[in-house]
Each structure stands twice: as C-alpha cells, then as structure tokens.
C-alpha cells in the first residue's frame, strides 16, 4: 500500500477533533503528535510530515495547535463556580445558565474553548490554586465570590489572568465585573415604598457578598424612609427554595406587605407561593426581583425587577481577561443596574 493510499484509509476511520484522535490514526503517542505539530526535530522528518499531512487532511487546526504548543498556551479558559454558601445549588440555575451561554458565545468568538468546574470549597480548600495550576487553562473566570473572597484575593496577588463576576469593594485586589448591587437594592426598595409599602421583606441569603450588598442597599432606603425591613433566609438550591418560601409565607405573611427577592428565580417562586395562598400581587403584597432574566417578562403578572446587564457583563469578563493575558493591568468594571417596571410593583 502506498503512502497516499494509507492516508486515505486512515482519513476514513473517524473524525479527528483532538490530538488523541490524531495519535490513534497515526499509530503513535499523543506526545509524538504534539511534538510533530510543533515542528520538533526530535520526531524524524518522515513521521513528522506524515502526522502533519494527516492533520491537514482532517481539517485539524495545525497552525493554531503548533502555535499554542510553542507559546505554552492551551486555547482554553477555565470557568469556576464556587458554591461555598450553598453547596446544593446547581449550575442549572437560570442565572448561571444565562451567563454561561453569553460567556461561551464570547469565548468562541475570540477563539477559545471553555472548561467548566462546579466547586465545593469545603471539600477542596485549594480549589482555585489547583485549577490554575493544572496546566489545562490559560486563564480563569470565577462566577460569584460566594464565601471565597479571601481565597480569591490571595490568588490574585500572584496570578494575573483571572477575572471574577461579583461585587466590587473598595480596595479589593482581584479584578471584578458585576453590577452595583447596593444601588440595585436601593432601586428595589424605593419602588416598593413609592407604591405604599411600609414593611419590607428580603427573601434570600445575606451571606454571599452580592446578596449582602443588595440587602444593604434596600436597608439604607428603608431606614431613610422610616419603614421596616427584615431578611428571611432563603437558599437557591432547588430542593430547598420552595420549602423555605412556603414556610416564610405560612408563618410570617402578616409581617410584610412587600417582598424584595434577591433573584428573579426566588421572585418567581414567591409569586407562585402567594398565588397558592390567595394573596393578590401587587394589591396585597408587592414584589420586586433582581436580574431581569427572560422569565421575568413571562410571569403572571409580569415581574418588576432590577436588570443586570448579563450580556454586557460576559463581554466585560472576556475582554478584561484577554487583556490581562497580554500583560495589561485592568480596572474592575461596575455595571449600572436598571429598574424594569412591570406589574408586580
């Protein structure tokens, strides 16, 4: 069998998407393929040319792979979601999925793949160090500070290509992209009070930094306007949200006439719980969410909420990270929230 015939047979044996696939076709190790694609002289000329021919015949991105190998780049950006505050929360949460979708689009447009990790910090205290030291990623985007602020700060001191979705605090060392959560909380409380509310409830956890800022902003307004506000701890894990909201409504419904929910997901669950108890929204209880996810416009009645620019945030995360990969120092990006008035408040 001639060399060309052998290549034709190999080309018909399946798709080639990775170096491992190419190594299988060539009958050599993945390391040999890597060296051959990088033009390493340790691989003899005949083998090197054959592997490169195979790569071209399968549309394998030869030049990009070789360039990445020479520059010790992987072409992969890591995305980590730490869940130290609520370990039972799932990545299937609508907010996570929305932001991840925008991130995947942005990274793909810039020629990068995405590697996702759901992190339980109580099981792996060195989760961030392990991820960035794995050799599998060029940089990392962390979605949410959770209860890991100090861990992220420590890593930021010695690791440049990292950007975090979260809340910006004066003097922090890590680069962050996120909404002005305190201002968002103020906008929510102002809307509820303007509608006549006198006793505000905050549904959500107050430990995560972003949620704490939202509650603090609402509390600032409540204090200034002389109305009460109380937090009712509510988790975002699917197996606890409905149960906890039901308990709040069953035992405390008479204590408040308006709800500021920390997320749209919680607001939708509140709307359902109120409806099941025959409570009219907004006539008896006013309701404001936070995020302006697509579902907010589809509820009955449509949800008044605080809009985060999630698409703009994803663009900012990717842009700042790639600039940091080039060695730039970058400032954090704080996005202005916007009150979206619909029918619940």
TrEMBL record:
Give the Pfam families listed for this entry. LacI, Peripla_BP_3
List the GO molecular function terms.
DNA-binding transcription factor activity; transcription cis-regulatory region binding
Q: Does the keyword Ligase apply?
A: no
Q: Where is the HTH lacI-type domain?
A: 17-71
Domain of life, per UniProt, equals Bacteria
Entry keyword annotation includes Transcription regulation? yes
Which segments of the protein form a coiled coil according to its record? none
InterPro entries according to UniProt = HTH_LacI, LacI/GalR-like_sensor, Lambda_DNA-bd_dom_sf, Peripla_BP_I
UniProt keyword terms in alphabetical order: DNA-binding, Transcription, Transcription regulation
Q: Which Gene3D superfamilies match?
A: 3.40.50.2300, lambda repressor-like DNA-binding domains
| PROSITE patterns reported in the protein's UniProt record | HTH_LACI_1 (PS00356), HTH_LACI_2 (PS50932)
Q: What is this protein called?
A: LacI family transcriptional regulator
Q: Tell me what organism the protein belongs to.
A: Novosphingobium kunmingense
